[in-house]
Write a structure and sequence with these properties.
Blueprint (H helix, E strand, L loop, with lengths): L3 E4 L5 H8 L3 E3 L9 H7 L5 E4 L7 H6 L5 E4 L9 H6 L3 E3 L6 H16 L2 H9 L21 E4 L3 H14 L3 E4 L6 H7 L1 E3 L2 H7 L2 E4 L13 H5 L6 E4 L8 H9 L5 E4 L18 E3 L8 H18 L20
Parallel strand pairs: 1-2, 1-3, 3-4, 4-5, 6-7, 6-9, 7-8, 9-10, 10-11, 11-12
Length: 329
Amino acid sequence: MKPAVLICRAVFPDIIDRLREHFEVETNEADVVWTQPELIAHLQGKAGVFITGTQPIDTALLADCPELRAVCSMAVGYNNIDVPACTARGVLVSNAPDVLTETTADFGFALMMAAARRITESEHFLRSGAWTKWTVNAFAGADVHGATLGVLGMGRIGQAIARRGALGFGMPVLYHNRSRLDAATEAALGARWVDKETLLRDSDHLVIVVPYSAASHHLVGAAEIALMKTSATLTNIARGGIVDDAALARALREHRIAAAGLDVFEGEPAVHPELLTLPNVVLTPHIASASLPTRRAMANLAVDNLLAALGVGPQKGKPPTALNPGVLA
């Protein structure tokens, strides 16, 4: 009898077919967002689960799903998974880094430019029928070319953002990261490490790409926003909760910074209600990686990991992006 696996959300049909070659597959083609008890119920008897980045995998779930051997996510972030608890129970965990780096950086740069150049605000103005004449200062925003780009978090995506700014737009690049890049990488990116306070004070356009953890919760709050230029923009493509959305909404309302671009939110899909009323913020529904080629690559990598973790396929026993590969030893 084939092992059983669960796919937690609707995915591409050929992804399901790849898994059905080797497993009994339960799908969620209605794309219902299950509660934790519902997820636990669906996981009974399952050896593996394909998740999409929001399903919580914690100690209580693991205790109630003793047959679970692999948790494979198509997202790069894994703050929804208690990896140490999985390791303690011998459950393999994987994520999907690298395949979404360039697409996410494209989107982050586009979001930053939309905020700087007031694109959403001006589109709403036009669609409302309010545009009756050209004026010299209508929706005059900030330049991007030649302005100082600040990157908070200099991992794969942060470096891709920096390359776009330095090489494509002639932007001086400042960055802050827990660990400094080597000199050769800094030189290739045209990037200079500074402390967080200097980054906030000196950036014209700040892009946030740090991973979420308890330590990074509200990493950018009222005190940090107060250090920024009144002409600056803030773009968050990292995770909700890294920015204090309430503090950001107040700062935008009071024009203590010029604009923001947000793809992630605290408590998403709920959005802080004040953000929805402000004209100087561009809002998108967590879609930074949402190109078809990239989403397909993310899903296929999750399948590669699940196959390997459960002992089938050409990478049998060696999941390509395992977070705790030692559990397979």
